[in-house]
Amino acid sequence: MSGQVNPPPAASNDKDGDGMPDSWETQHGLNPNDPTDANKDPDHDGLSNLTEYQIGSDPQKNDTDGDGMPDGWEYKHGLDVNKNDANGDPDGDFLTNLGEYRHNTDPNKADDLYKVFATDCKDTRKKVSAWEWFLIILLTSGGLLSWFKAWQIGKPAKK
Q1: How far apart are CA 108 and CA 91, in angstroms?
Q2: What angle do CA 103, 45, 117 make, to 5 degrees?
Q3: What is the per-residue pLDDT across 26-74, written as a single tens digit (0 to 9) for each?
Q4: Which residues of 101-124 are buried (b: 16+ CB within 10 A; e: fewer)?
Q5: What average pLDDT does the chain have?
């Protein structure tokens, strides 16, 4: 949801003419008399204060919805900056939006999943190796259980 949710204010509600209502600026720690604050980015999320006003996010919070992804990254990729959508997977590649952010991949492009195995995550926790991924997939798909049953069938009976 990267569309505009807040309309431009009436001129009488925007003394400095920067496109943000004075009351909104005051509420979010901005100066209603400073026309240059519309282009500033106090939370360093990649969105200007004016854009934050237009999409309904908080210009003082890098991650308005607290889902682990900066507002600017979510906005750039068409996600909702006001909704925790960390577990979403719009491209259906089995990598969540948060995983896409951590791996610097596009949550709308399933064909870049291969990058996950070639790049480091932004996450500071232990990285999962390709072998560990193989085991995870094998275990979750029931492959190990099927293999074990097949092995037991082919094994000679004990006397």
Answers
A1: 5
A2: 5
A3: 999 999 999 999 999 999 999 999 999 999 999 999 999 999 999 999 9
A4: bbbebbbeeeebbeebeeeeeeee
A5: 83
CA–CA separation, 154 and 33 (whole Å): 81
* Per-residue pLDDT, 26: 96
Domain ranges for the chain = 11-154
C-alpha atoms less than 13 angstroms from C-alpha of 93 in its C-beta half-sphere: 19
Six-digit token string for 109: 């492009």
Angle, CA of 86, 118 and 109, to the nearest 5°: 45
- Under the banding of pLDDT at 50, 70 and 90, the label for residue 132 is confident
pTM over 0.85: no
Provide CB contacts within 8 A for 80, sequence distance 6+.
1, 65, 74
